[in-house]
C-alpha cells in the first residue's frame, strides 16, 4: 500500500542531525527513499543519490530514468534489512499487480550518506519458478524478526552458513555440511518446500546439477535479523545454457547457526530456465 506514502512522506520532515553516515536511522531513511522511488517512479525526492550512481538491473547497467525505477510499482510487501558494518541496505519486495508482477531484490551501497550503487535482481514471468502471488503469500507467513542481542550469531557464522548452502548446489559436498534446522523452508520463485511439511527440515536439495556454481558473490549481512543475502551468478540454473551464469539472489534467515528460511530469486535466459517444474525442487 505504497501509494499512501504520497500523503505520509514522513521521511521528508526527518531532520538529519547526525554526521554518522551509517547510523541505522540514516539507513532506514535512505531505504524509505528508495522504496518511495520504486513505488512512485519519481527519483526527484531521492536527494541522496550519487551523481555517479551505478544502477544495475540483472547485472547490466541501466538508467533510473528508463527502468523499473521509473515505472511506479504498486508494492505489495517488502522485507528490508540493514548492514551497518558495510553500510548497505537490502530489500526483498513483491509486486503482485496482475498487469506485471515482479519479485525484486536490491542491494544499495551507501557511502557517507550517499547511495553509490543500486544493484537489483529483477524476476518476472518466465524467470525461475516465478509466481509473485505465491512468493508474497509464503514470504509473509514467515517471521524474520529481530533476534535478541544475546542470541545473535557473528557475521562470520552467518556468512559461513550461507556459503555452505551455496557451495552445496552442485551436490558434491552432500547435505550434512549445510547447517539447516527444523523447521527449514525454501521459497524459490513461487515454490515453497515448507508447503509439504511446515515443521520439518525441508531445505536439503533434491535436484542438483554437477556443474552448478554461484560465482561473483556479493554479501550483505544483517546480524540483528540473522540475515545474509548473496547476489551472484548462478551457473547451471538455466538448463539450456549450462555454461552461462544468470543473475541470482539468495537470502537466508539463520537462528542459532541454523538456516531456517531460504529465499531464492533466480532469472532465466530461456523461459522457465528450460525446465517445466511442477513439483518443488
Ligand atoms: C557499467 O557502469 C560502470 C560504472 O559506471 C562502468 O565502469 C562499466 O564499464 C559499465 N559497464 C558496461 C558494460 O557498460
Ligand atoms: C515495507 O514494509 C514495512 C514493514 O512491513 C512497511 O511499514 C512499509 O510501509 C513497506 N514499504 C513499502 C514501500 O511498501
Ligand atoms: C540525504 O541528503 C540530504 C541533503 O543532501 C541530507 O540533508 C541528509 O542528511 C542525507 N540523508 C542521509 C540519510 O544521509
Ligand atoms: C500462482 O500462485 C497462486 C497462489 O498460490 C495460484 O493461485 C496461481 O494459480 C499460481 N499461478 C500460476 C501461473 O501458477
Ligand atoms: C539430501 O537430502 C535430500 C532430501 O532429503 C535427499 O533427497 C538427497 O538425496 C540428499 N542428498 C545427499 C547428497 O545426501
Ligand atoms: C513433518 O515432519 C515431522 C518432523 O520430521 C514429522 O514428524 C511429521 O510426521 C511430518 N508431517 C507430515 C505431514 O509429513
Ligand atoms: C556455451 O554453450 C553454447 C551451446 O550450449 C555454445 O554455443 C557457446 O559457445 C558456449 N559458450 C562458451 C563460453 O563456452
Ligand atoms: C516447457 O513447456 C513449454 C510450453 O508448454 C514447452 O514448449 C517446452 O518444450 C517445455 N520444456 C521442457 C524442457 O519440457
Automatic annotation (TrEMBL):
Residues 1-20 form the signal peptide. This is DUF8021 domain-containing protein. Keywords: Signal. It holds the Pfam family DUF8021. Residues 151-265 form the DUF8021 domain. The keyword Signal applies. InterPro entries: DUF8021 (IPR058334).
Amino acid at each position: 500500500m505504497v501509494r499512501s506514502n504520497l500523503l505520509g512522506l514522513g521521511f521528508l520532515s526527518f531532520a538529519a542531525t547526525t554526521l554518522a553516515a551509517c547510523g541505522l536511522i540514516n539507513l532506514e531513511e535512505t531505504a524509505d527513499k528508495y522504496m518511495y522511488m520504486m513505488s512512485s517512479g519519481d527519483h526527484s525526492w531521492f536527494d541522496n543519490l550519487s551523481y555517479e550512481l551505478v544502477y544495475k538491473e540483472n547485472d547490466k547497467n541501466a538508467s533510473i530514468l528508463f527502468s523499473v525505477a521509473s515505472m511506479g510499482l504498486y508494492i505489495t510487501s517488502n522485507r528490508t534489512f540493514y548492514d551497518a558494518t558495510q553500510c548497505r541496505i537490502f530489500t526483498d519486495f513483491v509486486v503482485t499487480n496482475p498487469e506485471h508482477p515482479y519479485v525484486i531484490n536490491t542491494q544499495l551501497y551507501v557511502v557517507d550518506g550517499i547511495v553509490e550503487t543500486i544493484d537489483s535482481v529483477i524476476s518476472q514471468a518466465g524467470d525461475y519458478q516465478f509466481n509473485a502471488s505465491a512468493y508474497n503469500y509464503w514470504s509473509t507467513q514467515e517471521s524474520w524478526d529481530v533476534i535478541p542481542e544475546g542470541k545473535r550469531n557473528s557475521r562470520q557464522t552467518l556468512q559461513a552458513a550461507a556459503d555452505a548452502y551455496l557451495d552445496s548446489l552442485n551436490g558434491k559436498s552432500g547435505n550434512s555440511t549445510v547447517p539447516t534446522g527444523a523447521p527449514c523452508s525454501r521459497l524459490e520463485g513461487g515454490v515453497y518446500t515448507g508447503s509439504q511439511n511446515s515443521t520439518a527440515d525441508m531445505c536439503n536439495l533434491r535436484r542438483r546439477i554437477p556443474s552448478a556454481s554461484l560465482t561473483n558473490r556479493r554479501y550483505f549481512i544483517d546480524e540483528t535479523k540473522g540475515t545474509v543475502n548473496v547476489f551472484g551468478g548462478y551457473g547451471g540454473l538455466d538448463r539450456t545454457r549450462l555454461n552461462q551464469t544468470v543473475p541470482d539472489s539468495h537470502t537466508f534467515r539463520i537462528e542459532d547457526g541454523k538456516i531456517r528460511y531460504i529465499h531464492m530469486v533466480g532469472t532465466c535466459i530461456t523461459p522457465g530456465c528450460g525446465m517445466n517444474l511442477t513439483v518443488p525442487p
